[in-house]
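Posting this for the archive.
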Amino acid sequence: MSALSDQLVTFAILTYLVAMICHAVEYALGNARTRAMAATPARELVGAGVGGSGGGPVVTEAGSDAGVKPPARPGGRGRLAGRIAVVATAVAALLHLAGLASRGVAADRMPWGNMYEFVLTVSFIGVASWLAVLWKRPSLRRLGLFLTLVMVLLLATAELVLYVPVVPLVPALNSYWFVIHVSTVVFASGLFLLGVVPAVTYLMRAGYERGKRSFPYTLAKRMPSAESLERLTFALHAFAFPVFTFAVIAGAIWAEASWGRPWGWDPKETWSFISWVIYAGYLHARATPSVKRNVATWIAVLGFLTMLMNLFGVNIFFEGLHSYGGLD
């Protein structure tokens, strides 16, 4: 089952890559359509001369011969590529889930015992949540370009850098609190992962709408409106934050039962607290009318950077009571 899990995850990465390419094709064809429409000769009214056969104005196309058709619009092909991208993302998510499930069966436990498994699970929660959002709001489909890019990068990193063979759960994690605490951390982290995608895209799109035409603002040219991206960012973080709060509290209860103290400023505990404070700051800033939306969104991005530090930096470079969550 372990070998099957590895193969399924590899196929999932390749399918996410296909989805990303299809999203890129949709994006490129959308740009081509915009250029084609801009290049279509403008139609103008020319008044009929005296003695003409008709008394009304004649419609002509400036700079073109009569009977020449405007260039075909590639919008249909772009929409098809976008739909294929969504289907490929759904197939990749199923392969992803199957890889996780087979990993759990092979280990005879929940597949959250190390960094490799944690990244696999968090990324699956992120893409599953994205498909749920897309089901409700299909107009956000182009955002899938950046999400699938994140999926490919995360899973490739997991396979190439974080991979460890299937091993039994270490005794320190052999508790029902393992399921309660880690499952909520995983779920909240997956939502934060998804939330940072529209957050970064919003910052680029807002700049583009303000007239900035340099890189990276032009990357958001074909993305949904800044307002819709900002609303999605807030909704995801507002949903994830209470779950993350519960996860921190559950971790403190588990620490009291296991180590005789609820909080000891272990590196992972410290960075979890930092993340919690920053995300609380984001929600507070978002609810404060005097704080600009782009400022609040930058706080959300900073919160996700601290989550990455907690996952990769703490597990790899720091020693503490949570060291079993690292590469070994």
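Residues 2-39 form the longest helix (38 residues). Residues 17 and 197 are 17 Å apart (CA to CA).
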